[in-house]
Amino acid sequence: MYRPDYAIPLVLCGFLAAAAPLRAQDCSWVETFDDGGTDFSQTRLPDLQLSGDGTFEQAALTTGQGAPNTSPNLPVNAAGDFEGRYFEDGVSTAPSLALTEDVAQNAVEHVHLECIVGIGSTGAGASSAGLVARVSGVQAADDYDAYVLYLYHDSGNEAQLILGRIRDGVIDQNDAYAISDDFTVDLSEENYRLEFDVRGNTLMGRIWRQETTGGFIEENPIDLDDANGNQYVLTATDTELWSGRVGFRAEAHGTNSVFLEAFDYEEYDCPPVPTFCFGGSPGFTCPCGNPGLAGRGCNNSALTGGAQIQANGTPRIGGDTLVLSCNGLPPGVMGLYFQGALQIGAGAGIPFGDGRLCAGGQLARLKPVPADGLGFSSYGHPNHSVSERAGIFEPGTYYYQVWYRDTKPFCMEAEFNTSSAVAVTWLPPLP
Prior knowledge:
The chain is an all-beta fold. It is built from 1 helix and 29 strands.
């Protein structure tokens, strides 16, 4: 619930922009494995390369061996949800892969990958789960080349993040190889989000710890190098520049399981989703002499350089995976995601609190969402459908922005500000 003074006008006068926004492409999508059933081939990762006694499946995580945790609010243990699971009942001979089809994304060189993993441990033996990119030459599960980022857990309450190169199915410990210090894990109460960037000859990997606090998911980066202060990124370089498919790598010994949720795929060469309403642009005047940094709204009392909204996923009516996110908010503030049918002032907007209102016309309030301790919030897939919430039934372009409380007034008594804005073109339903 949000307070009455959060309300914004339903109808504002505005003008359409002259330039049409770009259309979302299938080179950016999120896979959540929530089709139900046990047929893993329904996913966008249908090419399975299995090994040993392992099996990939879609499985309800509240039952069965190796459920990764007991926190029902976390993504890979939500009641009634179905996730991708890799389960082994026996000794593994090699890790297993789930990949994009050979005919699609077959020569990806520059890609950003994310996923959420959980490790269920019911017996002895190592387990690992992670992401692979530029996978090439797959003839068998132990005969391929790739780059890999994965979470490795052997036993006890410690794990490692490993970034490296796979040659002929085996981790190649050379100059394209990095491994974190041991860090503490609680497999019964936590999930982990991995982020893998492969661009040119540079590889980068990050990991976040996911816990529930007060009913909300709290996410914090994991320090990967205890001896040298806070180091949150593993990096490596390589000169071979392979190209190939992307996917998920799993290994589970004994009766252990690993679980995958929200496999997020985005090619760097995708046409970007157009954003506008920047507080630092020429001709764009912030109301309080508080210009933001490039690509952001007007600056706020937390001096973050302004709030920035982004859109990821596929905006398809009747099956959207759109995720709206916002960073640069003052930590802990409430922000209201809303949709407009028009751009105001050709995208320049009008003064509004400490910022500018750029999304206008017929407005639809989506949901107020609190920012976390780092000033980040998000709304959309997999917990909410933006198209259903906003009442979108026909293809077309809509504009999104975040209105947020700024209880320490920057310059206006109204005590609120706005983010930048983003244009999203909705696609028709699949036949």
